[in-house]
Amino acid sequence: xxxxxxxxxxxxxxxxxxxxxxxxxxxxxxxxxxxxxxxxxxxxxxxxxxxxxxxxxxxxxxxxxxxxxxxxxxxxxxxxxxxxxxxxxxxxxxxxxxxxxxxxxxxxxxxxxxxxxxxxxxxxxxxxxxxxxxxxxxxxxxxxxxxxxxxxxxxxxxxxxxxxxxxxxxxxxxxxxxxxxxxxxxxxxxxxxxxxxxxxxxxxxxxxxxxxxxxxxxxxxxxxxxxxxxxxxxxxxxxxxxxxxxxxxxxxxxxxxxxxxxxxxxxxxxxxxxxxxxxxxxxxxxxxxxxxxxxxxxxxxxxxxxxxxxxxxxxxxxxxxxxxxxxxxxxxxxxxxxxxxxxxxxxxxxxxxxxxxxxxxxxxxxxxxxxxxxxxxxxxxxxxxxxxxxxxxxxxxxxxxxxxxxxxxxxxxxxxxxxxxxxxxxxxxxxxxxxxxxxxxxxxxxxxxxxxxxxxxxxxxxxxxxxxxxxxxxxxxxxxxxxxxxx
Length: 487
Ligand SMILES: [Fe+2]
Known about the structure:
The protein is mainly beta. It is built from 5 helices and 34 strands. The protein has one domain: TolB, C-terminal domain (Neuraminidase), CATH 2.120.10.30. Bound molecules: fe (ii) ion. Fe (ii) ion binds next to strand 21.
């Protein structure tokens, strides 16, 4: 095991006088970047599991005065590389422009989303003066890993094995504007689909990147005002974007603040357009007001587009606890359920309804079925705690609605768990789910590997890690054949 000390002690990160739970325990930032390959394994690492599990998340390097929001932390990628029955752990901060500026200064320069951004050095392309930390998702495209930011920023290109930041990704100079957190990659065509949103017109732009990594299409999507779309969907021929009634508060914006509110008087609206269609070709589908962070998958079925999502049950419910940070805590206590939309292209009507009522989120499918009719979706189960914690994994059979569960056990909290196909596998669920789990009682993190077809059977193996992996955001699985492409 080699170790380099690049960071600051985690203790400094919480030395701002706050009892902020998102800086403590399973959320506390780690201050070191390590590579570790002599890992203790309980069970046996499957030899037919080859590729790398990558997970992004907030990991503040420098404390700054003011309130800390979980979303403020600097992006850090944690990775476990599986190769022929062996496993190697690596973690690295994403070297964004802001991270480099703070590193050069030796202290924090950006305040968080809950404070006035007026004194911050720079923001994103939309004049939002917040730190673009690239802390939200990791997406593999065209041989590179892209780390992305939820408020739209500069995608950072990274090496998927060393986690070295290669630089800002501008798609050979063709990217204009900013880039969303959850672009969609169609592995059959090699294309990438994305949007960009902001507080000034055009409020929403949509685009396509060709398999050789150039933006080849962009169009403006006409929506009535600034929105906060988080995710999108593709099908074989279409893209689906959202106009949901979660709205940036313009009064707060005039005061230089960033606030959002949910308008129950407005419908949810879904823009369906041809993949390379123009904004004028959008067909709008209306549905009940709601908010959606994440799409499970979408596909075409006859004259309908089917889209499965995790739909938030009550987008702005009242905080149930009294705490100076109650608003953030309530907002982060995700309460979502599996929900299906059917958009009828013939009649222009929407059908919608729940497929489950339990609180599951951070959905994943095999990356090869994105945009195609698939049978299985996997999600984390949200724990009944005051902070956002994942106490298990759920597998949904999207055809039948059947469900399987795995719970990590008391005091054990997981991460988003991508599907990792087994070498030579043919069935859609022939493979594994891979997740980081932090055991609070033993104060130790590990990687848990489960059989995707049989979650109830419990871990195939557990790989113990020499460093804590804080609870974080999104992940991906990059197969060995894709890593070959990266080399
Ligand atoms: Fe997300």
